């Protein structure tokens, strides 16, 4: 997931940066930095999004299956 996709998700839920930050349990400045491309979307942030989003969207949050398995171990 890149910064543009992150921003699209926020917009699709019609949230301000402050609302989205609270929704994800992070600061507004972190959301702003991700959206501006100054901070990459971490695996932890992807996992937070996965918990609150439709499961069908989870795969698009990760760059490859190895990252998914690190956050959500497959047994």
TrEMBL record:
It holds the Pfam family HTH_3. CDD domains: HTH_XRE (cd00093). SMART domains: HTH_XRE. InterPro entries: Cro/C1-type_HTH (IPR001387), Lambda_DNA-bd_dom_sf (IPR010982). Residues 6-60 form the HTH cro/C1-type domain. The lineage of its organism: Bacteria, Bacillati, Bacillota, Bacilli, Bacillales. SUPFAM superfamilies: lambda repressor-like DNA-binding domains. This is Helix-turn-helix transcriptional regulator.
């Amino acid at each position: 997931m890149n910064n543009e996709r992150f921003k699209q998700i926020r917009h699709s839920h019609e949230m301000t940066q402050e609302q989205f930050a609270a929704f994800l349990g992070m600061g507004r400045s972190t959301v702003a930095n991700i959206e501006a491309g100054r901070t990459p979307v971490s695996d932890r942030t992807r996992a937070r999004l996965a918990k609150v989003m439709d499961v069908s969207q989870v795969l698009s949050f990760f760059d490859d299956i190895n990252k998914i398995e690190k956050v959500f171990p497959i047994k």
